[in-house]
Amino acid sequence: MSGKVWILVQQRDGGGLHPMSGEAIRAGVQLAAMAGTEAEAILLCAEPGSAGEEAAAFGPAAVRVIQHESLGQYTPGAFAGAAAAAAAAESPGWIVLPHSYQSIDYMGRLAHQLEAALVPEVIAFRQDDAGVVWTRPVFAGKLESEVRVRGDGPVVVSVQAGAFPAERSEAGPPVEALAVAGDAIAPDREVLGVEDAAGEQVDLSQAPAIVAVGRGIGGAEHVKEAEELAAALGAELGASRPVIDSGWLPRDRQIGSSGQTVSPKLYVAAGISGAIQHLVGMKGSRCVVAINKDASAPIFGVAQYGIVGDLHEILPAMTEAVKQAKA
Ligand SMILES: Cc1cc2nc3c(=O)[nH]c(=O)nc-3n(C[C@H](O)[C@H](O)[C@H](O)COP(=O)(O)OP(=O)(O)OC[C@H]3O[C@@H](n4cnc5c(N)ncnc54)[C@H](O)[C@@H]3O)c2cc1C
Fold this sequence. Notes:
Radius of gyration: 21 Å
Bound molecules: flavin-adenine dinucleotide
Structural class: alpha/beta
Shape: elongated
Strand content: 15-25%
Strand order of the largest sheet: 5-9-4-1-2-3-10
């Protein structure tokens, strides 16, 4: 495979860079270094805002902006059309996207338009004699599969949250324009309005620290023990599924294969056994502190720090220690 690595970065509603884009750029930069080519961040937007400069800070060789009024409101037709037209003109070897809801919505269409292979939800990659080998979870994260793309056409890849840390580099390139013919950017629908279906839903994917509770918390009346630690740490509250199913916390706090995927710097797991459906949602966490009375609980397998004991004693003690350290 020859050609550059393009990373299609995503803008937040406010104009800044969506945090998962930093991770995608780092993945793209690593891929480019491995393949002996360059990584370029490509921003599709109506107004770049600060997203271009923010993308540059993650170390791509270039940041290029496809700017068009029809890219202000996301539609799969306009985004796939713009990216496909630009890619058809320059033939990047790989197109990397963050595995976000927006990318999931249009990357299949983009791959189809480019007659490219599609490898979603990549968590790692390596090179062997026959090319790039991609690792991706299957069966809700129970297994990891390694795949290689046949042929030598372009490859569209999305990278899972938390798999590639978004480290910033020293200096970034200037932001430049990438021209695409306007008729390629054709919204395929009229968006009449956008409603947040989840109402006040908490976006745990952006939380820098999370205190998560499992069934071991023992009841809604004990959740405040975790809440107090979360407040002391400035962390969000998360939970395993039984806590949600029991009604001890609202559904938007669920982490795991049927909840949110998180990648905080700190993840405190209290009274969580570490079932695979939970692990798949939090194993991108930088530092996991597990509290469990069962020393053989699988959660200790992914924890940097393990505390074997009763969480009703440990959570208040940790809260006190954090408060004292801050005093
Ligand atoms: C299709 C499907 C999707 C699913 N999706 C999700 C998902 O998105 N998220 C999710 O979390 N689960 C999900 N599950 C459920 C998952 O399989 C597990 O059942 C669940 O994660 C277990 O939650 P838990 O660890 O809180 O409870 P348990 O497995 O019951 O573990 C409780 C733990 O608390 C410990 N404990 C008890 N008392 C104390 C104490 N006083 N002090 C310290 N430790 C204590 C116990 O030793 C135990 O390890 C899904 C399952 C299926 C089939």
